[in-house]
Amino acid sequence: MFQFDTSYARLPHPFYTRVSPAQVPKPELITFNSDLARQLGAQDTNQSDTQLAEIFSGQRLLPGSEPIAMAYAGHQFGNFVPQLGDGRALLLGEVVGPAGHRFDIQLKGSGRTPFSRNGDGKAPLGPVLREYIVSEALHHLGMPTTRSLAAVKTGETVRRETPLPGAILTRVASSHIRIGTFEYFAFKQDVDNLKRLTEYSIQRHYPEIQNDPQADLHFFRNVGQTQVELVTGWMALGFIHGVMNTDNMSIAGESIDFGPCAFMDQFRFDQVFSSIDQFGRYNYSNQAQITLWNLSRFGNCLLLLHQDISEDELRKWNQELEALQDLFEHRHTIKMLEKLGIFDYERPNDRELIQKWLRYLEAEHLDYTLSFRALAPLVDQEAGWGAFKKTEAFQEFYNLWQERLHQQDLEVTAIQERMNQVNPVFIPRNHKIEEVIEAGRRGDFSPFHEMNEVLQTPFHEQEGRSSYRAAPRPEEMVQATFCGT
Predict the structure, then answer these.
(1) Residue 192 catalytic?
(2) Structure pTM?
(3) Of the listed 86, 104, 216, 247, which one is catalytic?
(4) Does 216 belong to an annotated binding site?
(5) Are residues 254 and 229 in contact, defined by beta-carbon separation less than 8 angstroms?
(6) Is 60 annotated as ligand-binding?
(7) For residue 324, which of 167, 224, 381, 402 is within the disulfide window of CB 3.0 to 4.6 Å?
């Protein structure tokens, strides 16, 4: 199926530990993403479900596979932990796709590793189904993200608060190098391996700068720009990652490590879903500040490679971070303007227009996704206010919005079409994911397959699929989501 060529395993031993996947009693395939497999250049994808279950539970290794658990550190809720690492994941290997891009293929839930601390290294079924759904949904929503190749039941019981069925997810990423990977070597003052990691990362992800005399600085800039693009995209979709620790932030700018993540239903600036985020560090609006905080930690690591740096050079690094803050505000504004049907360029009062709209949504407890979709018909002034409540706040927003719409040279129908290309009909609703998980625990995966099918075309109405579109009823609303460890 795949022929692995694992460049990361050719780095020195401190980068990882070799580990074999745990044996499981009865691997059973839930799903296999054959489209993704073909995009990765898989040969001979005609294996039986039994064979696929064996491969993607780690019971049968493919040629060239050298399973490793990667080492990294991280700031968790602001507190530094010097050693974390893959506690329940194994990198099976890397494949080079038809376009020449390199991808990691990793198992999650494949058993204990030296980094498991007190954990069992296993994954319950629920988090596996959640990550599969959310990661694939983000991909079809146009977001950079790790993707899901397969999900397998293991036939064993995983004990958390209650006994749960076990499962393993196969994840695909441009790499699994994190800001926390750099922190791991920086904390140890291991400058040699920090330099190796930096050179490897540049060669793998940003080869166009590897011969640049200021490659490290430009590496910082590139990683920062991809992080900004990623998180502003999350926020435009109403997505909350939930655990933006530095060990959960990929230098490739991909969404990674879906634990207590969720898409908002009713809009709130300070919305939190994670059951462990007691002080709202990673709430919806704070994702901007946390992105920059994480990047400052990344920059500190790279500066260890320049211990004799001059004040002028240090000023350049600080200016790069300040520029990323400006870039974040600008890219967030542009993406939100597009959702409001404004496609020309940012003007002085645009950010206030966006805030008026969001404050209205919050005050009226309106659904974030459906409200943007319902706004498109109102581009035509003859449509009136639609279903929106006729408050003074909405009147003020509406008048400013219409004035702003008319400042661009676009026909009404063109604006509406473009709005519907960036404002989805379907998102992975929290209550629907919970329904999928409950059905899966009973052995019924038909809701899981149907939900994934719906989310493959999120910007188009789909006949007979209205339940996936609808906001939850009060009794269906999910107030908290949980990490699977």
Answers:
(1) no
(2) 0.96
(3) 247
(4) no
(5) no
(6) no
(7) 224
Nearest Cα neighbor of 143 from 458, 388, 409 is: 458
64: containing domain = 8-176
pLDDT tens string 251-260 = 999 999 998 8
Spatial neighbors of 283 by CB under 8 A, at least 6 apart, are: 240, 269, 270, 271, 272, 277
Q: Are residues 242 and 169 in the same domain?
A: no
Cβ neighbors of 379 (< 8 A, separation 6 or more) are 341, 405, 412, 415, 416, 419
Is 224 known as a binding-site position? no
Q: For 166-216, how does the pLDDT look when each residue is reduced to its tens digit (9 = 90+)?
A: 999 999 999 999 999 999 999 999 999 999 999 999 999 999 999 999 999
In sequence order, what are the beta bridge partners of 18?
68
Do residues 189 and 326 share a domain? yes
Domain check: are 212 and 169 in the same one?
no
Q: How many domains does the chain have?
A: 2
At a CB cut-off of 8 Å and minimum separation 6, what does 200 contact?
7, 8, 11
State the helix-helix crossing angle for 311-339 and 412-422, rounded to 10 degrees. Answer: 120
- The answer to the question of whether 87 is labelled as a binding residue is yes
Please, are residues 357 and 391 in contact by the beta-carbon 8 Å criterion?
no
Distance CA 122, CA 110 (A): 6
Q: Rounded CA gap, 213 and 433, in Å? A: 49
> What residues contact 302, with CB distance under 8 A and at least 6 apart?
182, 198, 216, 217, 219, 220
